[in-house]
Amino acid sequence: MKAFTQLNGLVCPLDRANVDTDAIIPKQFLKSIKRSGFGPNLFDEWRYLDHGEPGMDNSVRQVNPEFVLNFPRYAGAQVLLARDNFGCGSSREHAPWALDDYGFRVVIAPSFADIFFNNCYKNGVLPIVLPAEAVDLLFQETQAAEGYRLNVDLAAQTVTTPSGKSFGFDITGHRKHCLLEGLDEIGLTLQHADEIKAFEARHRASQPWLFNA
Amino acid sequence: MAQTLYDKLWQSHVVHESEDGTCLIYIDRHLVHEVTSPQAFEGLNLAGRKPWRVDSVVATADHNTPTDHWDEGIKDPISRLQVETLDANIKHFGALAYFPFKDLRQGIVHVVGPENGATLPGMTVVCGDSHTSTHGAFGALAHGIGTSEVEHVLATQTLTAKKSKAMLVKVEGELGRGVTGKDVALAIIGKIGTAGGTGYAVEFGGSAIRSLSMEGRMTLCNMAIEAGARAGMVAVDQKTVDYLKDRTYAPKGEQWEQAVTYWKTLVSDEGAQFDKVVELNATEIEPQVTWGTSPEQVTNVRGAVPNPANEADPVKRGSLERALQYMGLQADTPIDQIQIDKVFIGSCTNSRIEDLRAAAAVAKGHKKAANVKLAMVVPGSGLVKRQAEAEGLDKIFIEAGFEWREPGCSMCLAMNADRLEPGERCASTSNRNFEGRQGQGGRTHLVSPEMAAAAAIAGHFVDIRNFA
């Protein structure tokens, strides 16, 4: 997995609550059997005025000039600022794949849907929960100042504004460790292979019907 | 100490607990479909790893498969490649059971698991699909996972997770005529919101829940995720046991007796503490219809589309206005005056035999309204289809002008050819009314199978309780 340590990135504000994973990456792009190449279709139905299908040349499609991601001032953004319940709906990991492929490494919101939140960590994308008032302030500052950047420091667990205001955020020790080091989680788990085998043997003894083949 | 059902399911699967509370949880059943597994199998291959226990895997192709002209195969080459990739992966790695495209037992993974007895009480069940919460209806701990976790489960038979908080949603009283598990689910989501269950494992309890059939409980648990809860569950009772008896992968003989004895302990103990309790009065729940682009934007069939002017919170008002604009609805329009273009009866929420019986009972002897361009019935699996045909339900639907299709996810998410065109309005028994969910620009109203069938006949939403 890709490591995440620290980032100073341009912020793009997406001022909508309940952004679902169908909106982040529509279903037709889920037919791919690859993990990469989803970036050009991130927020496809909002970002383009025509209907997108896999295999299309996105560079010749009609762009929606009113969608925030298409504002020239947000080109190259790496931090997505969002509202409550971001990433709700489908479990598709294609959503963080698309965000990452586009260039977003951090998503900040007052709350996230559970599965999406979890999927982000597996892909080196850092989802950060900040209090609603802090997110409101970041929206105001982002919209007020072109070129607005945030500094995100995972080791210190802080988000810092250009004026030096700093907000702390929570993350479990396990997730922080994996993300800072860019660790392969399967490899880590397999260090417990003997414990898994021992558990499995006890489980089989008490509920043998779970192991009928 | 008194334990909740969730406590029992969690504790009986902890392999290892770290200092920060992150646990390794053992996984009993791994359901696999074609959309969220190819990258996981590829990862396994690239790392030179083998699956830990292939006899935990039950796989089927459901999202991409067409619902008509099966003799022509899968026409979309990208969809076909995804389904063929699953065929190849299962052939290479193995599985307890695989129900490929066109197999009699093929169908929606969340219909296939329970009907084959591959979902059992006390299990941990995962799948790269958010509606895995469905299986909690059997007193199992079941939830959706991402593709990285699919790979993790394949390789290690475990998941890394922290225990969620526990919520009890208690629905006491008798459900009225025409009020189904779907209406209970939508009423709960309307009350607690689409993020109300975030961070919680939700147990549904109370006399109204116990009165639901296993199909009704599956519908309810299926939509736990639409309230933000990864896992929904219902305690084991005699209905659970009766449903599972003699199913293909359910235990038999002495093992059956032993299993049933254990399963009956899978209830929350008297006095068990929940982090949150939400109560609903069953007698107050009416047939539900969503009017917006989130399942929480719901009202009862006698209600009306809300007026954003009455909303004080600017963020909420904004999303209300946006939803009405997308849905092409005027504020204050009575729900039963909303005309529809299409009807979809199907999905992992409402495509089981009981759902089809209920819809057929409404459609029987009627004709689809002239303004309804298409009313399609998509059974949840080949077995459901066969059962329905044995009961003559297919003929009832066809005589009423509905289309009788092959099983699959179909227009719930429109990954195959079944979809809404821009601006089309659909009465749908599925689970999500998100923008574009059933096709770009499509407008979805979530309802029960009875309500969907009645809307097909009337051409607009009608109160099923007054439908002759």
Provide an overview of this structure.
The complex is a heterodimer of chains A (213) and B (468). With 213 residues, chain A is an alpha/beta fold. Chain A has 2 domains: 6-171, Alpha-Beta Barrel (Aconitase, domain 4), CATH 3.20.19.10; 183-213. Chain A is built from 8 helices and 7 strands, in the order βααβαβαβαβββααα. Chain A has a 7-stranded mixed beta sheet. Chain A is globular, with a radius of gyration of 20 Å. With 468 residues, chain B is α/β, with parallel strands linked by helices. Chain B is built from 15 helices and 19 strands. Chain B has helices at residues 5-11, 38-46, 77-93, 109-115, 147-156, 181-192, 207-211, 214-222, 238-244, 253-263, 314-327, 353-363, 382-390, 393-399, 449-458, and strands at 14-17, 23-26, 29-32, 57-60, 97-99, 124-127, 141-144, 158-161, 165-172, 200-205, 231-233, 276-281, 288-290, 298-300, 342-345, 374-377, 403-404, 425-428, 443-446. In chain B, the strands form 5 sheets. Chain B has a 5-stranded parallel beta sheet with strand order 5-4-3-6-7, sandwiched between helices. The longest helix of chain B has 17 residues, at 77-93. The model of chain B has no long low-confidence stretch (mean pLDDT 97). Chains A and B meet through helix 4, helix 6, helix 7 and helix 8 of A and helix 2, helix 3, helix 5, helix 10 and helix 11 of B.
